[in-house]
């Protein structure tokens, strides 16, 4: 698979990723996933892969957005979707030390950040918004999901993302 060498770690044994070209980002920004992204792929294998990534995203917020993108196609995976999943796995292989680390700091200030991607879903044109909340410099809450309605403008999508982030801060 993907021209890789034999596996040595549990994830590598399962998905044969030793020696693969590492990825620097969890998902390629230029790659737009859609419902018709190539030929149909193995449904069970795709669900197992994405299920494991969902589990890992609880401690790896850096992959949560990418995992949410590929999990949209659990019901009908295509070749382009499985390629995106393998890209996430190659990213994880190149960043083994990433994860949540809590450090003691001298302050308990609360910071929140939010962002959005206007009309990012090619299938229904809904925007994706997300936020992350820090207390004392430590990440304690984050979320990335599709907005419930189609935003008519970038300002509306941004307002919805800010409202989501402020609600979590409160």
Relative strand content: 5-15%
SS elements, strand count:
3
List the uncertain runs: none
Could you describe the largest sheet, including whether it forms a barrel?
A: 3 strands, antiparallel
User: What strand order characterises the main sheet?
Assistant: 1-2-3
Radius of gyration: 17 Å
Please identify the structural class as seen in this structure.
Answer: alpha+beta
What number of structural domains do the residues give? 2
Looking at the structure, what is the overall shape? flat
Order of helices and strands: HHHHEEEH
Distance between the termini: 47 Å
What kind of assembly state do the chains in view correspond to? Answer: single chain
Mean pLDDT: 81
Put simply, the count of helices is 5
Name the helicity range: 25-40%
Features of the shown structure:
single chain, about 170 residues, flat
Account of the protein in words:
The protein is an alpha+beta fold and 170 residues long. Helix content is 35%, strand content 15%. It has a three-stranded antiparallel beta sheet with strand order 1-2-3. β2 (128-135) and β3 form a beta hairpin. α2 packs antiparallel against α3. The N and C termini lie far apart (47 Å).
């Amino acid at each position: 698979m993907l021209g890789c060498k034999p596996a040595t770690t549990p994830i590598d044994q399962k998905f044969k990723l030793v020696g693969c070209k590492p990825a620097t980002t969890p998902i390629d920004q230029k790659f737009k996933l859609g419902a018709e992204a190539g030929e149909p792929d193995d449904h069970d294998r795709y669900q197992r892969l994405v299920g494991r990534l969902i589990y890992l995203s609880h401690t790896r917020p850096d992959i949560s957005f990418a995992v949410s993108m590929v999990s949209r196609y659990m019901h009908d995976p295509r070749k382009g979707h499985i390629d995106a999943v393998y890209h996430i796995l190659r990213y994880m292989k190149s960043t083994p030390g990433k994860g949540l680390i809590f450090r003691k700091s001298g302050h308990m200030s609360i910071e929140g950040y939010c962002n959005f991607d206007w009309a990012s879903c090619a299938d229904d044109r809904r925007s994706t918004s997300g936020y992350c909340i820090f207390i004392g410099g430590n990440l304690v809450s984050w979320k990335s999901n599709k907005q419930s309605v189609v935003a008519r403008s970038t300002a509306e999508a941004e307002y919805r993302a800010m409202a989501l982030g402020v609600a979590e801060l409160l």
